[in-house]
Amino acid sequence: MRHLKSGSKLGRNPAHRRATLRNLVTNLLEHGRITTTLTRAKATRPVAEKIITLGKRDTLQSRRQAAAYLQTPQVTQKLFSEIAPKFADRSGGYTRIIPGGIRVGDGAKVAILELVTYEFKRKEKKAAPKKEEPAEKAAS
């Protein structure tokens, strides 16, 4: 029986599970929003919240702990300079999970995991270059 054994194993051994969560948390903090399966999003959320709480402390020890967990130094720097100050007055609940339907390939439930302060920005469409008419080319 699995009484009081909280958290999903994600079908991986402990080292692979830790690596998966590290990658997900790093990408979440880097991009502000990631799309993944619902189970992975639920497993990633508490880890991401703990890392953001480390960022709010901003001590040498917390910087070292965050740097040891996150994959890249740029994300660690972003955590302490940009992300943590936004959540300074908030005591928790830094992320949200939005259900995203079902994945076409294997039917897995998909979810969007994003930071609460994330602002969705639509990409600007590039204007198609106008083709010159043959009459203009001949006149030139």
Distance between the termini: 83 Å
Give the overall average pLDDT. Answer: 91
CATH hierarchy: architecture = Alpha-Beta Complex
| Unreliably modeled segments | none
Strand content: 5-15%
Give, in order, the helices and strands: HEHHHEEH
Q: Identify the CATH homologous superfamily.
A: Ribosomal protein L17
Coarse shape: extended
User: Which CATH class applies here?
Assistant: Alpha Beta
Cα-atom Rg, whole angstroms? 21 Å
Helical fraction: 40-55%
* Total tally of structural domains: 1
CATH topology: 50s Ribosomal Protein L17, Chain: A
Order of neighbouring strands in the sheet with most strands: 1-3-2
User: Which secondary-structure class do the elements indicate?
Assistant: alpha+beta
Largest sheet: 3 strands, antiparallel
Number of helices: 5
Q: How many DSSP E strands?
A: 3
Describe it.
The protein has 140 residues and is of the alpha+beta class. It has 5 helices and 3 strands; from the N terminus they run H-E-H-H-H-E-E-H. It has helices at 14-31, 38-57, 60-69, 73-86, 134-139; strands spanning 33-37, 95-102, 109-115. Helix 1 crosses helix 2 (38-57), helix 2 (38-57) runs antiparallel to helix 3 (60-69) and helix 2 (38-57) packs across helix 4. It is extended, with a radius of gyration of 21 Å.
